[in-house]
Amino acid sequence: MQKEIFKHKLLVFNYALAALLLMLTYSCKKKYPDFPYNEIEKFSIKDVSGTELNAAIQEKNIIIYWPPFQDQPDSIQPQIAVSDRAIITPKSGSKIPFKEGFSYEVKAQNGSINTYTLKIANNQPLPYFEVNELVINLNRSMSLFGDYLIPDATQTSVYLVDKNKKETLLTINSISNNAVNVNIPLVLSQDTSHYHIKVITGKRNLTKGPYYIDRPLLALGTVTLPADVLTVKRGQSIVFKHSATPGTLKYYAQTGRYATVAITSRITRSVPMQITDTEITLTIPQDFPLGATYGSISFLVEDKAKGTWQRRTSPFTVVQ
């Protein structure tokens, strides 16, 4: 009897054990849903000095505030943390171009995808400047004084903008963070006229004006007489060479041109002259005093002070 009871208990135990093993097997095979998370949780890079910069993640944008006045690199290697069991492409630490519009793809375990776009915030201060010239002339330099200019001619540029919005890039002579000196060319789209001045520095630009740009100043430079011209007869023409910038004279009147020749320190004679971009021609009048030596001549192009040049030339003597 006891033997039968033992067999019965053993049979019950075996059934219970089998049921338990079946339950364990079933529970092990139970499938849990894949994770749906596909977010960027942290995105950081290092600036030029090695300081860590943490990007702001807003509405699927990765916004980086790059320090002002630091040169931006062409590429970066971000360190990125994403949601649990998600995969990001390109992966964290990969070198990418440092430019707006570059995108990352974050794929969740369940296959859902989020796309993030890189944006670089303009953290550069707005520049300002003033023109440090009472009169701006063609073919001269012009200085601008202000602040927050990037002292690099590859990142800062100055333009003249005419009434038709045509821009002329100016050559930079010198530049600092608070001043820039540029050349105004001899010929512009509108020549003497009103222009706006536009400064681009880094990602910032500022336009001011209009400013009037006047005609070039007269500057003959050197005036020379050929070395073999020592004596000149009455009625004879003599030719002086000058080194004025070609094209300057077109801005001045064609009438009223003459030369004032010094006979003594107190006596002068006015002599008609013809002038080109390279030469000045004088014709000695028939009544010029003989035997006098002349070496100081004032060349007057217009009846205005800015049209007068006075140069001491090689001496010459007038003979019959």
Summarize the helices and strands and which ones pair or pack.
Blueprint: H1 2-28, E1 40-46, E2 52-54, E3 56-58, E4 61-65, E5 75-76, E6 79-82, E7 87-89, E8 96-97, E9 103-107, E10 113-121, E11 128-131, E12 136-137, E13 141-147, E14 156-161, E15 167-169, E16 171-175, E17 179-183, E18 193-201, E19 204-214, E20 223-224, E21 231-233, E22 237-242, E23 258-262, E24 268-275, E25 279-283, E26 293-300, E27 308-319
Parallel strand pairs: 4-10, 12-19, 21-27
Antiparallel strand pairs: 1-2, 1-6, 3-4, 5-8, 7-9, 9-10, 11-13, 13-17, 14-15, 14-18, 16-17, 18-19, 20-22, 22-25, 23-24, 23-26, 24-25, 26-27
In brief:
The chain is mainly β and 320 residues long. The protein has one helix spanning 2-28, and strands at 40-46, 52-54, 56-58, 61-65, 75-76, 79-82, 87-89, 96-97, 103-107, 113-121, 128-131, 136-137, 141-147, 156-161, 167-169, 171-175, 179-183, 193-201, 204-214, 223-224, 231-233, 237-242, 258-262, 268-275, 279-283, 293-300, 308-319.
Characterization of this structure:
The protein is mainly beta and 320 residues long. The protein folds into three domains: 40-121, Immunoglobulin-like; 128-214, Sandwich (Immunoglobulin-like), CATH 2.60.40; 223-319, Immunoglobulins (Immunoglobulin-like). The chain has one helix and 27 strands. The chain has one helix spanning 2-28, and strands at 40-46, 52-54, 56-58, 61-65, 75-76, 79-82, 87-89, 96-97, 103-107, 113-121, 128-131, 136-137, 141-147, 156-161, 167-169, 171-175, 179-183, 193-201, 204-214, 223-224, 231-233, 237-242, 258-262, 268-275, 279-283, 293-300, 308-319. The strands form six sheets. Strands 20-22-25-24-23-26-27-21 form an eight-stranded mixed beta sheet, with no helix packed on it. Strands 3-4-10-9-7 form a five-stranded mixed beta sheet, with no helix packed on it. The N and C termini lie far apart (170 Å). It comes from Pedobacter hiemivivus. This is DUF5018 domain-containing protein.
